[in-house]
Amino acid sequence: MDITKRIAAIGIIPVVKINEAEKAAPLCRALLAGGLPLAEITFRTDAAEEAIRIAAREVPEVLVGAGTVTNTDQADRAMAAGAKFIVTPGFNPAVVRHCLEKGYPIFPGCPTTSDIELAREMGLRVVKFFPAEAMGGVKTIQAVSAPYPEMRFIPTGGVSEKNLGQYTANKKVAAVGGSWMVPADALEQGDFAAIEALTRGAVRAMHGFCIHHVAFNCGSAEKAEETAKAFERLFGWPYIAGGGADHAGRFIETMKGEARGATGHIAVGVNDLGRARAYLEAMGVPFAEGGSASVAWLEEEVFGFALQLIENEK
Asked: Does 210-311 match 3-206 at the fold level?
């Protein structure tokens, strides 16, 4: 998997300003344990180059890049230290051209349509959108995507756990960048447990895991109707007749024939099916065959229920 696809599969780029290079390895271990094997270490401190070197050497499971790169010398130093990608705050043609010539993956800041056009001319299809919230956030990304449908964006600046979902649910967003998982005081104090907890919260918010619906294997059309109508009688969820299944409201499905799971299945809603699947697979969760572009089945069953991933309605 190439660098861009790996970043998109992970979904969140923790943006790190580090003053003590020796903290890079435990920081990356905390991000990894929290579910984000990715870090952008910014060239805003003198410790950045050595921090990248230590992280790349000691925690190779984490994809480490260099951020706030403003000149070609920094780009060369970062890649020599072990950075796997370069991020720049704006669109500097000299830096972009240098990185492309050297084969360095680069995501330049492109806050305007003029910048996007320059990036397209150089063959780039994924760029940083900074400062995201100040530039109008998701609405602006959606608007500028119309004339540039092949472009995808990494919004950074003002992204937090509160608005994360609206960004990651947008198909034009390849990933988001943010620093809230690594607050300066926690890093300064070496509170890596807090950083891990914040990272876990960010991952949960990104995926949006929730119960989409619960399905019961009723075995016949008559039993399916009876079961759905029982939920209507008890809770007022309207009975809806269907082909292979009936429903009671939105959340209950009563299957008429053979279906997955000894008892039925639980559909877990996610914001992005591909990203959620990549996350679970990275945790060693196996998936069964027979899914689709909008549905994936886990091999595991829980208390007789098969488990299904399905995208949340946008």
From this structure: no
Superfamily of domain 3-206: Aldolase class I (3.20.20.70)
Residues 214-272 pLDDT 10s:
999 999 999 999 999 999 999 999 999 999 999 999 999 999 998 999 999 999 999 89
CA distance 51 to 20: 8
Q: Which CATH class is domain 210-311?
A: alpha beta
How far apart, in whole angstroms, are the C-alpha atoms of residue 130 and residue 6?
21
- The residue annotated as part of the active site, out of 84, 128, 172, 256, is 128
Does residue 117 have an active-site annotation?
Answer: no
| Residue of 40, 49, 196, 253 with catalytic role | 40
Enter the tokens of residue 139: 């609405």
Please tell me the distance from the alpha carbon of residue 271 to that of residue 193, in angstroms, as a whole number: 27
What are the residue ranges spanned by the domains of the chain?
3-206, 210-311
Quote the CA–CA distance of 210 and 230 in Å, as a whole number.
Answer: 24
φ, ψ for residue 268, nearest 5 deg = -100, 120
**Helix residue ranges, H only, the chain:** 3-10, 24-34, 48-58, 72-81, 93-102, 113-121, 137-145, 164-168, 184-189, 192-207, 221-235, 273-282
Would you call 40 a catalytic residue per the annotation? yes
